[in-house]
Amino acid sequence: MREPTPTEAIDLVGRYEAEQSIPEKMRADVRLLGALLGRVLRESGSPGLYDDVERLRVATIQAYTDESDEAFARAAAIADGFSVARADEVARAFTAYFHLVNLCEEHQRVRILRERDGRPDKERAGDSVAAAFVRLAEEVGDDTALARLQALRFHPVFTAHPTEARRRAVSTSIRRLATLLEERDTAVRNGADERRAERRMLEEIDTLWRTAPLRPEKPSPTDEVRAVMAVFDETLYTAVPHVYRRVDDALQGPAAGSRAPIVKPFVRVGSWVGGDRDGNPFVTASVTRKAAAIASEHVLLGLERTALRIGRTLTLDAATTPPSAALEALWQRLRAADEDEAAEIAKRSPGEPHRRILLLVARKIAATRTRNADLAYHEPEQLLADLRVVQESLVAARAPRQAFGHLQQLIWQVETFGFHLTELEVRQHSAVHAKVLAELDAGGERSELTDEVLDVFRSIAFLQERYGSRAAGRYIVSFTQSAQDLANVHRLARYAMGPGEATPVLDVIPLFETFADLQAAPGILAEIVEHPEFAARLDATDRRLEVMLGYSDSSKDVGPVAANLALYEAQAAIGAWATEQEIELTLFHGRGGALGRGGGPANSAILAQPPHSVDGRFKLTEQGEVIFARYGDPAIAMRHIDQVAAAVLLASAPSNEQHNRETAERYADIAATMDAASRERFFSLVKAPGFAPWFAQVTPMEELGLLALGSRPARRGLSVESLADLRAIPWVFAWTQARINLAGWFGLGTALEAVGDADRLIEAYDQWPLFHTMIDNVAMSLAKADDRIARHYLALGDRDDLAALVTDEMALTRAWVVRLTGGAELLGNKPVLQRAVKMRSPYVDALSLLQLRALRALRTGATDAEQQRLLLLSVSGVAAGLQNTG
Fold first, then answer.
1. CA atoms within 13 A on the CB side of 613
2. Which of 169, 311, 552, 873 could bond 728 through an S-S bridge, CB–CB 3.0 to 4.6 Å?
3. How many angstroms separate the CA atoms of 647 and 606, rounded?
């Protein structure tokens, strides 16, 4: 196949882009940023770089659109023909392009959200808490719906799992570009402001191009803490109260803001960053204390600035807004503690009693941050009490809009974040606890491991004393396999604190991860709640209990189909047990961003849960690229929180629970057939002799350990001869990079074939939420895979039998999914998602071809650092293109 002429190339690219039906404003953004990147490549790249990038771009689009072997071979030949140095530059160029396209997509999402802007005619019942409340009230009545709304809880937990392939410097540059896109949108067309925005965009893209795309070394745990803090500073601190405000506005109508809100704060933010030590030797007790201190510093600084800003605006004269007796008494108390500043404030704010109080409150928050014991608040409840005195005084003085305006948002922020910001959770492996206890029971000299494990409990006690009881106390036990694994935590706490000393308040949370552990969960829970410490904690919390479910290890254990079904059954059984025991259960979902780790749209997954497994409470892990995708932009963060909380509210609606129960029973025979068939197929692959080294050969699994993604090692210590100790993240990441995505779908085709009845399966897809969600997630996973590129990765190994297993199952699964979802191709029933995947695919192909050439070189014994760098650059680029890593 000859190379197209320049005119033919332009026509080819134009036709391809037109076929994707990209919204005109987004198309304009992509063209603008793409043109600016092209200009940067000409100006700042080496001679001929732009032309080489265009050659490969046109070739991969041609190969993607006509699907001929000849076209694919020509694209591969171009990628193979570059020098290593040129391939490096080309990989960086395509990666930069993906960052810009992702930004344009995000910007378009924000545009759409603003167009909807909470308008009821633009909303579905599951799209917002307000709309969900109206629908729920129709079923259960206003009073019950209100009680459920006020008990609602959404609890995202940020983790440091290493799946964000971008450097923080790159992410920061992209955020600056996002701001410039906003400015350009509001500028007069062809005016000076538009030209200025475009000039600054060019400067920023040039900076992005010149910024090293790979981290020089792995981040430390405290680096990871600071990265998460950026999300809090830029979005969460203001986004969360805005979500509450939008819900209250929708429910109260014109009266909103002039009377007490209906909404109670329903978001709690957790963090494993600096607390999760399972397999991470770099997370120590000292790191945990530092993580809490960093988080507290950020939230207290935010609260101080907010109180100061509100105080400066409360210029309400005592003649029009007289203070209450309680406010006068509060002034006297605050003045006595801070006489000089109180005198200065009184001098600057004569006759403005509410303003004076807020300015002194800001001083007390600052003293809390700087640890000035004489002036500091000892706990957030004291600050809330002061703010409520001000609020009640304003109400009494007939100034309700000031009482329930910005001041209410500050109260919501304190209620949500406290003085700790994130509820820091500790996680450790059950085997570590058993080993330490064996050493302690034997007496004698203590090892470093034992000292470190015990110091963690002393750190939890310290954090509770310093930042409040909510700051820390949840302790997650990985690989919980018995009630004793949970009781061991309390034994260790007693060892740590010593005789006569009070142990910290602990909520010990089992993490059930493997298939066998999920099945054993109800029995383990029934035993542990009889344990004295657990029984006492249940009494103290009105019988609240938290249980964590692991998605990734169960999927690696028995395959994605059997794992999904096992997780549903485990949730149903645990939910039924908790209801019978009158326990308020919160299930904690250890979901990842990738489909092989329980990823996918959270709201549809929530609505597919079994009865009594949600009950108005939903907790899940948010990690890596998912954190920045869902919480990096304020508008998108508010939308995500609103949608998930709406799904949590609706999940327990009688109609939804009844529908899920009935369909699970109706299609139980299909589930049983799929479970057995998929598991057998999965085992035929992963239990085949020599599978583990073959997996390492045909994917960049080993090389991923060289990419400085996160502080935690990729494996717990075993060699590549065993998958048992390989973490689920590199398992998923490696298959994703090879464009196979096996962890998200393998075994489903065989499972559906075993059922065989296409009409009944189509009916199940239409009626059964769990099955519908599973099929849709697999459709997305397969759409991001590419069988032609996959075959080239599989050819790196010397096992035709295993390669055939993978490709045959991929073809079978693809055929069944298309059949069930309708249409002629994957995602035919989801045009927006299909467009996003298709728009990226040829460009991802280009990076995959560059990765393949580097991988082939490394597999043939080359130890060239340049080839290794090219591989890692391509890994980062493919991750940006697919928007999924681990």
1. 24
2. 552
3. 6
Question: Helix, strand, or coil here: 488?
Answer: helix
C-alpha distance across the termini of the chain, in Å: 37
Q: Which H, E and C letters describe 403-443, residue by residue?
A: HCCHHHHHHHHHHHHCCCCCEEEEEEEHHHHHHHHHHHHHC
How many CB atoms are closer than 10 A to CB 479? 18
Beta strands in 160-305, from DSSP E residues, in sequence order: 270-271
pLDDT digits (tens, 9 = 90+) for 166-204: 667 888 888 899 999 988 988 878 888 889 999 999 999
Bridge partner residues of 726 (DSSP): 715
Distance of CA 661 to the CA centre of its chain: 29
Q: Quick check: 259 pLDDT over 80?
A: yes
Q: Which of 382, 458, 449, 403 has the alpha carbon at shortest distance from 426? A: 458
Query: How far, in Å, CA of 616 to CA of 653, rounded?
Result: 10
Structure-block tokens of residue 73: 């071979």
Label residue 117 left, alpha or beta by phi (over 0 means left) and psi (-120 to 50 means alpha): left
| pLDDT, tens only, 564-617 | 999 999 999 999 999 999 999 999 998 755 444 444 567 888 999 999 999 999
- How far is Cα 228 from Cα 270, in angstroms, rounded to an integer? 11
Query: Averaged over 663-671, what is the pLDDT?
Result: 97
Q: Residue-wise over 338-348: b if at least 16 C-beta within 10 A, else e?
A: beeebeebbee
- Residue 669: count other Cβ atoms within 10 Å of its Cβ: 11
Q: Give the Cα separation of 595 and 603 in Å (integer).
A: 14
Q: Which residues of 24-56 are buried (b: 16+ CB within 10 A; e: fewer)?
A: eebbebbebbeebbbebbeeebeeebbebbbbb
Catalogue the active-site residues.
161, 556
Coil/strand/helix, residue 279: coil
The pLDDT confidence band at residue 551, using thresholds 50, 70 and 90, is: confident
pLDDT bin (cut points 50, 70, 90) of residue 120 is very low
Query: How deeply is 207 buried, as exposed, middle or buried, from its count of CB atoms within 10 A (0-12, 13-18, 19+)?
Result: middle
Helix axes 800-821, 787-794, angle to 10 degrees: 160
CB distance 608 to 770 below 8 Å: yes
Task: Tell me the one-letter amino acid at 251.
Answer: L
Q: Are 529 and 538 in contact (CB under 8 A)?
A: yes
Between CA 685 and CA 269 the distance in angstroms is 40
- Give helix 483-497 / helix 532-540 axis angle, nearest 10°: 80
How many angstroms from the chain centroid is the CA of residue 347? Answer: 49
Q: How many CB atoms lie within 10 A of CB 586?
A: 21
Encoded amino acid at 292, one letter: A
